[in-house]
């Protein structure tokens, strides 16, 4: 979600951050305005819910939808949604099971035995409860049902103290069909805080984390989101450029290897031609040997026949002479 009243440089930086990440992984991006939807007097923060529903209409074939607050930055663009968050084996090792949905002591807890490929909604929690600043939802009918339930006019009319956050906690705790599809993961996987208003350190951002969230900068009177985010935007650009440089180095190395392979193939052409010529000579010599062998066999066979005929004739002559001698 983008607030078009924010400074243009800030908006450009946020869009650049998202577009760079999407381009790396073949994702699409969607930047609706917070005022694009009819919220019926509900706080503007509710706009994320119809925006996600809108994105599903625009990108009906996308496997996953990733919502990220405009007061957060993607700091490690090499990480993909599929491998880092939604992979089945990964989820089954990172999801927090039997965890109170609303800390510290909610009686409703996450399910203990859910397969990773059955999870359709992944989000985090902080000390106050569920966070909706950064979450991933899998495309499907359940996702549509979940978003429609979350945006139900009844919940918006309740005037929850924390708006859509409390509404989310309500439906997760009291609708088993939603809890059964939900996975909570450690905060630093998806939603690291640069500065936790509650003073917590468990979800504190560290270099290499996927996302840094400047949670609360837009509601605390003594904080300024743009000022807080500017140093991290600069740091993100350094990380981006370094990774792009690495990508270019890999690309150059691949191209160099491809050229070397072509050159090697060219170098092998003459030896291959010589080998082919030698093979032809060997085959011709072999054919000549076979021809000589055949002639030799034929001569040998014919010679044996001639000697046999001569011996038979001499035998008959001897017999004839014997017969003639007897008759005299």
Structure description:
The protein is of the alpha/beta class. 55% of the residues lie in helices and 9% in strands. It is built from ten helices and seven strands. It has helices at residues 8-25, 48-58, 81-86, 88-94, 141-150, 153-157, 163-174, 176-179, 187-190, 225-327, and strands at residues 64-68, 72-74, 121-125, 130-138, 182-184, 192-193, 211-213. Strands 1-4-3-5 form a four-stranded mixed beta sheet. It has a three-stranded mixed beta sheet with strand order 2-7-6. Helix 2 (48-58) packs antiparallel against helix 5 (141-150). The radius of gyration is 41 Å and the shape is elongated. It starts with 7 loop residues before the first helix and ends with a helix.
Compact overview of the structure:
The chain is 55% helix and 9% strand. It is α/β, with parallel strands linked by helices.
